[in-house]
Every structure is written in C-alpha cells, then in structure tokens.
User: Which sequence fits this backbone?
C-alpha cells in the first residue's frame, strides 16, 4: 500500500465542493502527474488534483491525449495518490478505455479506484458518454464530466478550438452538461467555452463547474501543471496564464551543473565522503603490496 503523507487539514470531499459552490467560494483544481507535483499541489492548498490525460503530452511526449494507455495513467495516478491526502483526487479515464460499453467503463473506473486510489474519475463528452457516466456512478464511483472542447475527440470537433461560439453550439454544450448532471456527475469541467456562453449556461447547473478557458463565471478553475508553471515548450492555449518559469529554471540549473562538471568545479570536497583516519594510507599500502 502507498505511504501517504499525514493529512495537513481536513480532506476535501464532494460535499466540500458543493458547499463552495453554494457559498460562491472559487474551487481550485490543478493537474499533477507525479509525486513531487502532487506534494506541491497539496502544499499549495488546492481543493482538487486531476491526473489529467494531458499527461500524454506533458510528461510522456505524445502529441495528443489519444495514445495514452490505462496502464500509463494508472502508474502516474498512483504516484500522485502517494503525494496527496487533503485534495480530492480525480483520475482521467483515457481515450478508448470507457466508450465501448457500460461494462468497459465500470471496469476501467474500478481500476482507477482500486489500483491508483482515486476518489473519482473523469470522462469526456456528452452523447454516449452520458450512459457510461451513469453506469460508473451506479457502480458507486463518483464521476466528473467534461464538456466543451474535449481533447480526446478534438478531431471530430474540427481541432483544438473553442466550443459554443454560436447559440446552437452553446445550447449543445448546455444539453451535454445537463445530461451529465442528470446522469449523476458530481461536477463538470467546461473547457474552451466563450464567457458569454458559460454565463448563460451556468444557471441551469446545480453541480460545481470547473472551468479551463471558460471565463470567470464557473465555480472554479483548473489549469495544467506544466502550463501554469512554465514547464515545457509546447503550444500554449490562450487561456493559459504562466505563474512561474520553472522550465527555464530547470534548463539553467542543468546547464550550470554541466558547466561545473566540465570545469571540474563539481564535486567540491564538501560533496564527498572521508575514510576513517589512517585508512587511506593502509589501503594504499595494501594495494601496493598486493600487486593488483
Ligand atoms: O487532461 C487534462 O488535463 C484535463 C484538464 C485540462 C481539465 O482534462
């Protein structure tokens, strides 16, 4: 079993998120994909951590979320679980792991709970996903829905572009969101939806809505860890705000290390170990005498 750190406060529950929505207190979610990232998110006091399938691009080097496998996601999610105690932990079901049937969806969701310790799982789209979400909820696993720009099926949406730009398109987003809410989702992600559309849809929803590129009217915000910290050099969506330049600091740190190794400035005496007094002389004598 995982050695989780001791809780540094009361754990965030589904009721906490509902309460925050009712109280008008913004919900903070961030993605994380490994143990140090999870520890940083917990230390920063976020409400929820999503091990997003954005891991495919941010940490695994794929060019979309489509190729990432359940096993890859489970390994990353379990590492995050070992780093978070207080925030709610949501695992992202990857493309192809839940769409085919309710049975497939439930089986995959159960793996995320059983093998990676998730509190909840996330699924993308309305349409046939609504039945999958209902089946997972019926199996006792909380589900977060995700509408608007759904990267797993971005091709069918005409690429990575904002959704709900016309009244009809925004109504489709609302219909998907309502269907997922009615299927029992405890919360929804709204991705890349114009602010006016979000504002028009929000009154119809009673569950917390966490936005990414959906304006300020949602009940909370989520950003991708690597985007907000400035790690990586991939495409940056317009909704991303950089709060740090960690990638540049990483490169500078490794370059400084490489420089010191090449100049023989590192390691310095304080980075080494000493033999017990007199033992170095004894060793030299021993090695000289042995003829080795
Ligand atoms: O995979 C992910 O990181 C996500 C968030 C952008 C919501 O789905």
Assistant:
């Amino acid at each position: 079993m995982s050695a989780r750190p001791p809780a540094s406060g009361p754990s965030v529950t589904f009721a906490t998120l509902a309460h925050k929505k009712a109280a008008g207190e913004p919900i903070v979610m961030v993605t994380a994909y490994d143990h140090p990232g999870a520890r940083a998110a917990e230390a920063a006091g976020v409400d929820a951590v999503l091990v997003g399938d954005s891991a495919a691009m941010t940490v695994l080097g794929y060019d979309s979320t489509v190729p990432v496998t359940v096993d890859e996601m489970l390994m990353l999610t379990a590492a995050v679980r070992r780093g978070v105690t207080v925030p709610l932990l949501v695992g992202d079901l990857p493309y192809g792991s839940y769409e085919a049937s309710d049975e497939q969806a439930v089986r995959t969701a159960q793996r995320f709970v059983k093998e990676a310790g998730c509190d909840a799982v996330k699924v993308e789209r309305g349409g046939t996903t609504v039945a999958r979400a209902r089946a997972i909820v019926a199996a006792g696993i909380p589900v977060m829905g995700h509408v608007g720009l759904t990267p797993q099926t971005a091709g069918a949406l005409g690429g990575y572009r904002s959704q709900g730009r016309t009244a009809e398109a925004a109504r489709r987003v609302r219909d998907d969101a309502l269907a997922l809410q009615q299927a029992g989702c405890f919360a929804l992600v709204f991705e890349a939806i114009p602010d006016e559309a979000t504002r028009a849809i929000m009154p119809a929803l009673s569950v917390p809505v966490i936005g990414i590129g959906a304006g300020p009217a949602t009940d909370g915000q989520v950003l991708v860890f690597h985007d907000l910290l400035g790690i990586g050099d991939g495409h940056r969506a317009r909704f991303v705000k950089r709060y740090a330049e960690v990638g540049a600091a990483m490169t500078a740190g490794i370059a400084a290390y490489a420089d010191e190794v090449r100049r023989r400035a590192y390691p310095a005496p304080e980075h080494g170990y000493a033999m017990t007094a007199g033992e170095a002389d004894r060793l030299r004598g021993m090695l000289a005498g042995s003829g080795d």
